[in-house]
Design goal:
This protein is an alpha+beta fold and 96 residues long. It is 64% helix and 12% strand. The protein has a three-stranded antiparallel beta sheet with strand order 1-3-2. Strand 2 and strand 3 form a beta hairpin. 10% of the residues are buried.
Length: 96
Amino acid sequence: MNLEDLIPTNEICAKYRVESTFVRSLHESGLIEIITVEETQYVHCDAISEFESLRRLHYDLDINLEGLEAIQHLLGQVRKLQKENLALKNRLNIFE
């Protein structure tokens, strides 16, 4: 893993004006992955859009951690069903 692709959690907290406990709670719930390198915690840059979405849901819509977990689970199911739907459409196109 390249260190250039990682963003320190303290920078994320400062930029998005969130508490470090919020980031830690997201990690403990399995909603984001925190990588520790030499006692510094980082989030991969690919996970920032997911973090931004979770932050908006929590702070703007006042959704608690359990609600965030449920939303993430349901969104995962929707994405899976969309992929399956696309695969089935592609299979049908073969027969047309």
